[in-house]
Amino acid sequence: MGIYTQEDKLMTLSEAMKLVSDGDKVAIGGGLILREPIAAIYELIRQRKRNLHLIGTAHGFDVDVACGGGIVGKEQHTYVAYEFVYRGGCPNFRRVVEQGLVEEKEDGCYAVIQGLRAAAYGLPFYPSTCFFGTDVLKYHPEYKEFACPVTGRKLVAIPPIEPDVAILHVHKADRRGNAATGAPLVADILMARAAKKLIITAEELVSEEWFRERQGATIPYYETTAVVHVPFGAHPTCCYLYYTYDKDFLDEYIEYARRDLDAAAKGERGTWMEEWLNKYVYDVSREEYLERIGGEKKLEKLKNWKQRLFDARVYKEQLAAEWEV
Amino acid sequence: MKITDYTIDELMVVAIARTISDGDLVFHGVASPLPMTALYTAKMSHAPHMVYLGGVGGGVDPTPPFLPESTNDIWLQWGACRIETIDRIFDHFARGEVNVMFFSGGQFDKYGNINNSLIGDWRRPKTKFPGGAGACNLASLTPKIVAWTTRHEVFVHPKTGKRIYTLVDKVDFITSPGYLDGSGARERAGCAPGTGPYKLITNLGVFGYDDETKLMKLESVHPDVTVDDILENTEFKPIIPDKVSVTEPPTPEQVRLIRVEIDPYRIRTLEFRGGKEECDKRRFKF
C-alpha cells in the first residue's frame, strides 16, 4: 500500500486506467456476479492493455470479459464461472486457457486471502495450515513447505500477494478517496491494503462530510490513488442496494462468447467476441453503453430488484395452497 | 394436494441434510444448490441451532425468501444479523470450528479425491473446469467432507467407444484432497489429523469410506437403483457390503419445507443435466 495524500483524486476512467501498465498484477474487487468494476475493465480493454496478471478469489464476468478482450497474460483466480446463472463455465476464460493463450495459475480462496494478508500485514509470508495434498500446488512453486519452528508441524509459506493495482467498485466515495465499499466485502479491503495503487470506481460521489459525520469510510482516503465516479459501474454484475445483475445482457454475451468457444473446439478462430466488443466496448462512450444495454427502461428494471421478493411471496402462497402434509 | 411422493433431488437434499448436527457451524461454497437446500432443511427440521454462514456473501443466519442461482446474490444475506467477511469465515475452518463442508466436482475417485480443475494435462488442459474455489484449502481442514454429484453416470463416446465416468479410479487432477492414495496418506501430506472424506451422495446412492483401507464403500442405493446400476456407472469397484440398504426417504414435512418454504423456484434441480424434467421422472412413493 502507498500513502496518497492529494486532496483531489477525482479523474476520468480513461485517466485512471492509465495508471495500469502492461504486465501489471491487477487485483479485481467483488466476486462472482457481485460488484465487479466492469466499467474499469472495459476501459482497460479499450486502452489495449496487454499481459495483465489478474488475481482474486471466485469471480465471473470480469475475468471472462478480460480474457475475451485480450488483456490477460496470467490468470490467478480460484473459480471462474457463473454458478447456476449459467452452466458450463465462462466461455472466454475456458477458451484462452484451453488454447494456451493465457497462463493459468489456479489458486485456492483461502491461499489468495493469506497471500493478500501477508502483504496487508507486512509479513514476509503467511504460514498456511491448509495447502496440502492438492495438485493446485503445481501451479505455485512460490508456495514453499516448511516445518513450524514452534510445533514442528508441516506448514506452507504463502509469500505476500502484492498487486501493482487493485481496482474496486464501491457504493460511495469522495474526491479525496474515502470509500464506503458496501457488503459483502469479499476480499476488497484486503486487496486495498495489499496493493501498491488503489483505483476506486464509485456508484455515488459524496462529500467528505458524509464520511466524517458517520466515520463511514471502510477505506480511508490515504489508501486510495484515484477516484472515478461511474454510476452503474458494476453492470452487468450487481451492486445492491442500487441494482441487481443484468440477466438479459449476460444471456446475449454468453451466446457470443460460446460461439467463439465452439469455433475454437473445431480449430477455427471465431470473431463473435470481436463483434461483441465492437458493440459494447471499443469506441463506445459510457452514455452510448447505457443506451445500448436498454437505456432508462433497463436501468429502472435493474433498480427495481425488490420486485423479485414480492413475486416470490405470491408464488410461495400459491405453493402453500397446493401442497399439504 | 396431499404430499404422497418425493423426487430424486429431494432425496439427495435430505441425505445431505443428515450429515449436519444440531449446533454445527456450517458454510457452503459457490455453485451449491443441493447443499444450500439441505442446510435449510436441516435447520428447519433436526438442527435448529445450526449456525448458517450463507455462502460466499457471508450472511450470518440469513432467512432467504427463496434460493437464488448465485451464492453472492443478496437473497442469501436477507435477514442476516451480520454480513461476515469471507476471510473470517475461512478462519473458522483453520481453528477447527467447522465440522462439515460440502464439495462437488467433475471427477471423484475411490479415495474421495475430487477434481474441480481440468481434464487432461494440467499444463495444457483439454477441458478447463471453473476451479475449486476454496476446496483445495478447506478440504485439508474439514473433519467431515461431504461430496455430492448429480452426474453419477457413464458416457460411452459414440466414435471411440471409450467409457467416460464421473466416479473414476483416479482423478486427472486432485483439487480437493481426499484420502489421496490410501490409509495415512492425508496425514503424511500435512492435512490436519481427524479430517477427510465422510460421504459421497450421488444421484444413484450414498457412499462412505472404509475405516482401514479408506476405499469408497456403498452404504445405500436410491429406491429405483440396483447394485448392478452402481457398478455399471462406476469405473472402480467400490466396497459392496453383503446387505445394501435403500436410502432413507425424506418425511412429508421435509418435502413440504423444500418445495414451499426453502426452494420454491427449484434452483436445486438446475444441478441435474435434465433439470426439473429429470427430477420429476424419478418420483418415489412414501
Q: What portion of the residues of chain B fall into strands of 2 or more residues?
A: 15-25%
What CATH first level of chain B would be assigned? Answer: Alpha Beta
Specify the overall morphology of chain B.
globular
Give me the Rg of chain B, rounded.
18 Å
Amount of helix of chain B: 10-25%
> Could you give the distance between the termini of chain B?
15 Å
Name the poorly predicted regions of chain A: none
Output the number of helix runs of chain A: 12
**CATH topology grouping of chain B:** Glutaconate Coenzyme A-transferase
Structural domain tally of chain A: 1
- Overall 3D geometry of chain A? globular
At CATH level 3, the topology of chain A is: Glutaconate Coenzyme A-transferase
Please tag this protein with its features.
heterodimer; A: 325 residues; alpha/beta; Glutaconate Coenzyme A-transferase; 3-stranded antiparallel beta sheet; 12 helices; 13 strands; 36% helix; B: 286 residues; 6-stranded mixed beta sheet; 3-stranded mixed beta sheet; 8 helices
